[in-house]
Amino acid sequence: MPGETVILKPTSHEILSLQAIHGMLSFKFSDLCEPSTATLDYLELSNSYDHWVISGNPDAETMTAFGLRRLAKLIDVLYDREIRLDLLVTADSMASLHHLPPSDAARLTSRLNALQSPATSPDTESATA
C-alpha cells in the first residue's frame, strides 16, 4: 500500500524504505546512507528498481563522512546502471564534499552533473525563464 514503509534486505543489511512500488524506491538519507550498508546492497536493489528517490539529505554542517561516502558509492552504482535518481537536497548539501578525497569529490560532482536532467539544469531554467 502506498505510504507504508518497507524493510528491505537485499543482502545481509536491513534497509528501511519509505516506499517500494512499481520499480521505484524512496528513502530518507538517514535510513539509506547513515546505517551500515554496502555497495552490494545497492547493486542487488538496482536489479529490481529503476527509479530511486532520496530525501532528507543533510546540509553541509550535519553530513557525516560515512554518509557521504555511502551516497557516493550509491551514485556510482546508479550512474553505471543508468538508473534514475531524484536526490532532494538543500542548496548547501554539496558543500560537504570536503569529507571526500579530492579525486572522489571530483568524480561525485561529475556524476551528479551527468545525472542532472535538462529540466533541472540551471542553464535550462535560465534559458526558459
Automatic annotation (TrEMBL):
It holds the Pfam family AFG1_ATPase. InterPro entries: ATPase_AFG1-like. Keywords: ATP-binding, Nucleotide-binding. It comes from the Bacteria. This is STAS domain-containing protein. It comes from Paeniglutamicibacter antarcticus. The lineage of its organism: Bacteria, Bacillati, Actinomycetota, Actinomycetes, Micrococcales.
